[in-house]
Design brief:
Length: 141
């Protein structure tokens, strides 16, 4: 199950980023919160990704968004304290590679914004794509 995979520090991970998968906040929230309407399918999907690739990635932006979602309002009738949210995030950051948001990511984001005319809140999503591209991650979930 997902908790076993994320908590097993002996699992060798992240050898080849060309097969890695970048996880989105909505997926890790659903996989985390048992009361979430999509929990079972999200947890199964993450388990399948680990079996297929073994290489899951997130970014600092995903980590921030995860904490915001879990602590701002109920998710599946569950509200997390900041301590609970951080504890769960620690599992994700242990089991996933946290990609750096560095100068290359910033330049890639600006290139995408200019090229595609990205505006407003969509720039946050553009930054996620830029993070994937800058690190050579071929796809996200």
């Amino acid at each position: 199950m997902i908790a076993d995979i994320l908590l097993d520090p002996g699992t060798p991970i992240f050898v080849d980023l060309s097969t890695a998968v970048f996880l989105d906040t909505s997926l890790i929230v659903a996989a985390t919160v048992a009361a979430h309407p999509s929990h079972d399918s999200a947890a199964r999907f993450v388990d399948d990704l680990v079996s297929e690739t073994g290489q899951l990635c997130i970014s600092p932006q995903i980590c921030r968004e995860f904490l915001v979602v879990l602590t701002r309002q109920p998710v599946g009738n569950r509200v997390f304290t900041i301590e609970e949210a951080i504890a769960v995030l620690d599992m994700w950051t242990t089991g996933c590679l946290v990609l750096e948001e560095n100068a290359t990511v910033v330049q890639e984001c600006l290139r995408l914004v200019r090229r595609h005319g990205v505006l407003g809140k969509q720039i946050h999503d553009c930054n996620l794509v830029a993070t994937m591209l800058a690190h050579g991650i071929p796809g996200g979930a």
